[in-house]
Amino acid sequence: MSKENKETLKIYDQKADVYLKTSIKHNNLDPDKAKRKREKLEGFIKKNMELLPKDAKVFEIGSGDGLNAKYIKDLGYDVTASDMADVFINEIKSKGLKTIKFNALEDEFTEKYFAIFCWRVFVHFTKEDAQIVLQKTYETLENGGLFIFNAINREIKNVDEEWVDFSNEYHMGAKRYYKYFSENELNEIITKTGYKICDFYKEGGANNNKWLVYVLKK
Ligand SMILES: C[S@@+](CC[C@H](N)C(=O)[O-])C[C@H]1O[C@@H](n2cnc3c(N)ncnc32)[C@H](O)[C@@H]1O
Fold this sequence. Notes:
By secondary structure, the chain is α/β, with parallel strands linked by helices.
């Protein structure tokens, strides 16, 4: 586990309550936009979950407020949500979800899953961290299982990494480690695993290229 991720997890542990409040405040600034974003994400999740067997086991890494895991559960899947920050864990549990404290870089999966969802978490992984998580999820997925994740596209910044506290929806009052991945860099580490890329696109931001979105298949 990188020292960058370890330090960032400490910040989440101290300030996850600020994160939750900021994201609600941000959504209230433009509720229609927030609704459109939510519907788009839910459409993407649903399309991919429909590729799985009915009642399939799904795991989410770094669930944060638990909204995505709740949506997956409501679609009828057997979802386990997870995070490291206690405030997030309590928030997720309050939504009635099966929840565990799980560090994607240090803890081992004890079950097999048909899909693992990891949304806006690679932002806090070094390249080495990302390789570890890709390998580890590959090993724990059922054959044909999906690993669904996104990462911030290096094209929007032209820097590899930085410590920052954004003033927008991600504001927390403390700097966290952010990694910006190029498509080549991610493709290079994906190639080292057995995953096949079954869907890839860019989305978000002023030029619709802020996020690199991947659906990988074992
Ligand atoms: C930007 S938040 C995203 C939360 C949620 N996935 C979402 O999209 O709203 C990043 C999340 O990654 C989690 N995280 C970062 N490093 C992690 C690690 N090594 N293991 C598990 N969770 C991690 C943080 O605790 C935090 O919940």
